Amino acid sequence: GAVVSQHPSWVICKSGTSVKIECRSLDFQATTMFWYRQFPKQSLMLMATSNEGSKATYEQGVEKDKFLINHASLTLSTLTVTSAHPEDSSFYICSARVPGGSYEQYFGPGTRLTVT
Amino acid sequence: AQSVSQHNHHVILSEAASLELGCNYSYGGTVNLFWYVQYPGQHLQLLLKYFSGDPLVKGIKGFEAEFIKSKFSFNLRKPSVQWSDTAEYFCAVNEPDSWGKLQFGAGTQVVVTP
Question: What is the rounded CA–CA span in Å between residue A110 and residue B74?
């Protein structure tokens, strides 16, 4: 099946610094990728839709200047958390939509971000 | 905006018991429906999906789900659970014209005791 990877799997950073998380579709091309945030014992909250070659579409309440998304190629989308603060600590998950008419998504393993 | 409700947040049952997890959605138009599972320490995996056709869909690992349009429901079932079914289960919905973005339910933590 389709495989989506994320890097890093976990990261600790100091408050005020920026962190970049990569999401790659390993064996298929994904024109659309999604970024989610998952708080402990809670569901996934969609942050933004990332389309290759165009600007990301952010969900209501998500700060686009804080969570920068770049979908530079058909296999790579990046999420940069800028000027991170402790409240940004969370589990960030990406997914990639299978190309074609299917609406299936394959999920990455997630990135645990801890801001100290 | 549509919403997805999962009725049980936490379910504990013994091996060989039957499992049914409820899922209701609010959107009145055409939707695609999914159940995902997240095993401890692993990423989300697709259990099954419904796009159209037979409302009873079968997925992996012996799971099935029934789409009842009149009730806006898509309940997940498994006749006999195993200890390895311990996981978090998420119902998700998307609208066909929304780039495929998913709206997730709150999730149900299922614990199967030996």
Answer: 27
Tell me if B102 and A34 make a contact (CB, 8 A cut-off): yes
* Residue B71 DSSP one-character state: G
Element spanning B79, H or E: none
- The amino acid at residue A64 is K
| A44/B90 Cβ within 8 A | yes
Between chain A and chain B, how many beta carbons pairs sit less than 8 Å apart? 52
Measured distance CA(A19)–CA(A99) in Å, rounded = 29
Q: Please, is B70 exposed, middle or buried when counting C-beta atoms within 10 Å of its C-beta (0-12, 13-18, 19+)?
A: exposed
Q: How far apart are CA A11 and CA A60, in angstroms?
A: 26
Q: Is B16 helix (H, G, I), strand (E, B) or coil?
A: coil
* Residue B91 · residue B26 · CB < 8 Å: no
Per-residue pLDDT in tens (0 to 9) along chain A, 116 residues: 688 999 999 999 999 999 999 999 998 888 899 999 998 777 899 999 998 888 899 999 999 999 999 988 889 999 999 999 999 999 999 999 887 766 788 999 999 999 99
Specify the amino acid at residue B26: S
Distances in whole angstroms, Cα of residue B108 to Cα of each of A34, A107, B20, B74, B94: 22, 18, 11, 14, 19
- In eight-state DSSP terms, residue A72 is E
